[in-house]
Design brief:
Elements lengths: L18 E7 L22 E6 L2 H11 L3 E7 L4 H13 L4 E6 L1 H4 L2 H8 L5 E4 L4 H21 L7 E3 L5 E3 L3 H14 L5 E4 L6 H11 L7 E5 L5 H9 E2 L11 E2 L1 H4 L4 E5 L6 H13 L1 E2 L8 E2 L3 E6 L3 H6 L5 H7 L2 E4 L9 H16 L6 E2 L1 H9 L5 H15 L4 E2 L20 H19 L4 H8 L3 H10 L12 H7 L4 H4 L1 H9 L1
Parallel strand pairs: 1-2, 1-3, 3-4, 4-5, 8-15, 8-16, 9-12, 12-15, 17-18
Antiparallel strand pairs: 6-7, 10-11, 13-14
Bound molecules: adenosine-5'-diphosphate and magnesium ion.
Magnesium ion binds next to α7.
């Protein structure tokens, strides 16, 4: 054969811009040890750096060395049992390498090929004789996918904030980077932190990250979930009791606050704390002392306090369910955990991260998501946030039989059939935005319709018409002085903080 144009050999580096592929001859193989050299598979003349390999192990070594975009498996006329076995082993050992079958037309019709593809062992196939243009196109496509993967997962390092104990807050979107910055800053300050955010957004993980970076990190991290516990139980859980404090108190119990001494106390779902207990907690926050139930003396406890809530505590205050004084005590430093649907590329990043993690844990290797599956993941609104993403990926890893996660493996339950769990269509989204902007414009312009309309760059008539459309009733208008108008106008960042400016120029 004419091998002149095919660059071969594992020692020769690929030329610039030339893509590498591994090649294994499977035709006529009866066992793995049968070494066959590559003769003419018709790759001559293609601008490829071809690395022939004989064994699965060689494939592994060549993969490290040459970073190929794909592995070509030359099956020829018939896909034998032995060839199928080698393919399965290759695919198990090197789950990230996309394998492309080179088959004669007969074999292309075979059930064997169908099952190799169905099981996800083979990424695609190419019918012989080689059609240079089509193969180049296929390899180009695979190369694109590989590059994309590298971008998402730079050699397995996911952007994250780690606590050194294998727990990672993964993310790189602007909102989560703000959270990372706040965690770092707040960790150094001994003041209560309030973490807000929907369920499953990582509030507890953030609390732990603060603890791990704080001066209390040698002490314990004690958490208590205040949701759904009756007053008596939560009281004794938090403050403990002495023996005989009440019927049934057979021995002394150390409460969680006391147990958190020298460490961090994490009060989860603080909004659910019964009012009487709120009073006792406030006293602890003010005096740093507690009394066990039935005790005569008080004990001093030094610990860092972090609280979390998924409800709006200001609303709870208005409704008389939460003490305002406790709120101000707790709400010294605040972190808002953004919902997953507002975290852009983080959704893909987290999905890939958990796919890798869970499939390794469960020893059910998966290569990745098909494009359509990723699109489906991105379109979903994730009402249960990261927690829901994790359980979805866990389910999918178990249920998907092949090595790729396909769109049909993902069945999102539309919670309550509200239709709000997938991204709305453009018209709905536009209307929502219009309404939101109008309300904003009215708010910052003190309900002055003329100014609100100006603010949005529309006529007063249009503004009125849209108010009717969205049933917007402005609150009592005020004359509106220049001040409220200035507030609403976008301010350029560099002029927003004159103090910051002078600091910058002074340094
Ligand atoms: N950014 C993140 N990176 C990795 N895992 C996360 C992230 N955010 C949340 N998780 C995981 O999601 C699950 C829910 O997080 P959790 O902190 O319990 O949420 P919340 O307290 O807000 O309900 C946990 O298993 C947590 O480890
Ligand atoms: Mg929680």
């Amino acid at each position: 054969m004419n091998r002149a144009n095919v660059r071969q050999g594992s020692d020769r580096p690929p030329a610039c811009n030339q893509i590498s592929v591994l090649l294994m001859q499977l035709e006529g193989r009866t066992s793995e040890t049968l070494s066959a050299s590559v003769d003419d598979v018709g790759l001559a003349g293609l601008p490829l750096h071809v690395v022939p390999c004989d064994t699965v192990e060689e494939f592994g070594r060549a993969m490290e060395r040459h970073r190929p975009v794909a592995g070509l498996l030359y099956f020829g006329r018939q896909i034998t049992e032995a060839a199928m076995e080698i393919t399965a082993r290759l695919s198990e050992t090197l789950p990230r390498l996309r394998l492309i079958a080179l088959v004669e037309p007969d074999a292309a019709q075979s059930e064997a090929l169908g099952s190799l593809i169905n099981d996800g062992f083979i990424f695609d196939f190419h019918t012989l004789p080689i059609d240079r243009e089509r193969l180049a196109f296929l390899l180009g496509h695979v190369g694109g996918l590989v590059a994309l993967e590298k971008r998402v997962d730079r050699s397995n390092v996911f952007p994250h904030l780690t606590d050194g104990k294998g727990m990672h807050l993964v993310g790189s979107s602007p909102p989560i980077r703000e959270v990372f910055a706040a965690i770092r800053k707040f960790a150094a300050v001994d003041a209560p932190v309030l973490i807000t955010g929907e369920t499953g957004t990582g509030k507890e993980l953030a609390a732990q990250a603060i603890h791990d970076r704080s001066s209390f990190n040698n002490g314990p991290f004690i958490s208590i979930n205040c949701a759904g516990l009756p007053t008596g139980i939560i009281e004794s859980e938090l403050f403990g009791y002495e023996r005989g404090a009440f019927t049934g108190a057979l021995k002394q119990k150390i409460g969680r606050i006391e147990a958190a001494g020298g460490g961090t106390l994490f009060l989860d779902e603080i909004g659910d704390l019964p009012l009487t207990v709120q009073g006792h907690l406030l006293r602890f926050l003010q005096h740093k002392t507690i009394e066990r139930l039935g005790a005569t003396k008080s004990i001093r406890v030094d610990c860092r306090v972090i609280a979390a809530t998924n409800v709006n505590l200001e609303d709870s205050i208005s409704a008389g369910r939460f003490r305002e004084d406790l709120f101000y005590r707790l709400n010294v430093l605040t972190i808002h955990m953004p919902p997953l649907r507002e975290r852009g590329d983080d959704i893909e990043l987290l999905a890939t991260y958990f796919l890798r993690k869970i499939s390794t844990e469960l020893k059910m290797p998966k290569v990745g998501f098909h494009d359509a599956a990723l699109r489906k993941i991105q379109r979903y609104r994730w009402p249960g946030n990261v927690r829901e993403l994790i359980s979805t990926i866990r389910r999918v890893v178990v249920m998907a039989d092949g090595r790729w996660i396909k769109a049909q493996h993902l069945d999102f339950r539309d919670a309550g059939g509200s239709g709000r769990t997938m991204i709305p269509d453009l018209a709905t989204a536009r209307q929502e935005l219009e309404e939101k902007l109008m309300r904003e414009a009215l708010r910052v312009n003190a309900s002055n319709i003329k100014r609100a309309a100006e603010e949005l760059g529309i006529s007063r008539v249009t503004f009125y018409r849209m108010m009717e459309k969205y049933s917007i009733v402005p609150s009592a208008p005020s004359g509106g002085d220049g001040r409220s108008r200035r507030m609403g106008r976008p301010v350029r960042r560099d002029s927003a903080d004159p103090a910051g400016q002078s600091t910058a120029s002074a340094s």
